[in-house]
Amino acid sequence: MTETGQDFAVERATRKRSLAIAFRAFARHGFDMGLAGHITARDPEFADCFWVNPLGMHFSRITAGDLLLVDHNSKVIHGSGSLNRAAFAIHSAIHHARPDVIAACHAHSTAGRAFSAIDDVLLPLTQDSCAFFGDLAVYDEYSGVVFGEDEGVRIARTLGQSKAAILRNHGLLTVGQSVEEAAWWFLSLEDCCNVQLLARAAGTVKPMSQEAAAHTAGQVGTTVGGKRAFGPIARMIAEMEPDALEDVELTLREAVAQPAP
């Protein structure tokens, strides 16, 4: 079945609302740190464009109508805010390298930053951490704030086909085939980093066997499972913070067709 403009409009509205809800969830978990952090969602019609939060807006205040649409040349197609250069450098490279990725998340969360600063790997200590067993990359080339597109390309290359990455001395990065999946993997990975830091501090850790970890990964690390796990959070925020869903109707075809200045 060929998708129509109406189909794209419905899916666009859905992704934007999911994105706004994900930002509200990140705010509730304390992931908002000044100008740092971004979540993106690929536009369903214009696949080389993605929606992203404007620079300097607190996650707890973002609505679907506040989001910026950005093309592969960093041109803001829709929206009135400023574009975060680091967001473009990282996310444009990931969306280009991974056509399967609908959404990507990066934020400067506390446990994620702490874990990124130590010489350690995520171990299969719990059922939850198994979601990342064999599916977690480590980017070990930190050289400052990611403003250069070349570093974004290196991050995307290191991520490969994984669902998540530890950005050494920086923080966490997750991706998914939906906004909900990507957001859940970020929440879960942050929690797993925190659990391992606590366990290490308490005593000698005891990882499960490789066989048990691989088996459990197939149970808790699926795309469908990740999306469903975020469902209760999304429903709670939609009910408690309905302003997050506020949006405006868009006509994007002419704007996307205009050449970059």
Topology:
Blueprint lengths: L4 H24 L9 E5 L7 E3 L15 E3 L5 E3 L6 H13 L5 E5 L2 H7 L19 E4 L9 H11 L4 E4 L3 E6 L2 H24 L7 H11 L2 H18 L12 H5 L4
CATH class: Alpha Beta
Range of strand content: 5-15%
Give the overall form. globular
Radius of gyration in whole Å, from Cα? 18 Å
What is the averaged pLDDT score? Answer: 92
| Share of helical residues | 40-55%
Structural class of the secondary elements? alpha+beta
**Order of SSEs:** HEEEEHEHEHEEHHHH
Number of helices: 8
Number of strands: 8
CATH topology: L-fuculose-1-phosphate Aldolase
Strand order of the largest sheet: 4-3-2-1-5-8-7-6
User: Which homologous superfamily in CATH is the superfamily?
Assistant: Class II aldolase/adducin N-terminal domain
The CA-CA distance between the termini, in Å, is 36 Å
Main beta-sheet annotation: 8 strands, mixed
Number of separate structural domains? 1
InterPro entries: Aldolase-II_Adducin_sf (IPR051017), Aldolase_II/adducin_N (IPR001303), Aldolase_II/adducin_N_sf (IPR036409)
Family: Belongs to the aldolase class II family.
Organism: Sphingomonas immobilis
Protein name: Class II aldolase/adducin family protein
Q: What can you tell me about this protein's structure?
A:
The radius of gyration is 18 Å and the shape is globular. The protein has a single domain, classed as L-fuculose-1-phosphate Aldolase (3-Layer(aba) Sandwich), CATH 3.40.225.10. It contains eight helices and eight strands. The protein has an eight-stranded mixed beta sheet, sandwiched between helices. With 261 residues, the chain is of the alpha+beta class. Strand 6, helix 4 and strand 7 form a beta-alpha-beta unit. The longest helix is centred in the first third of the chain and has 24 residues. The mean pLDDT is 92.
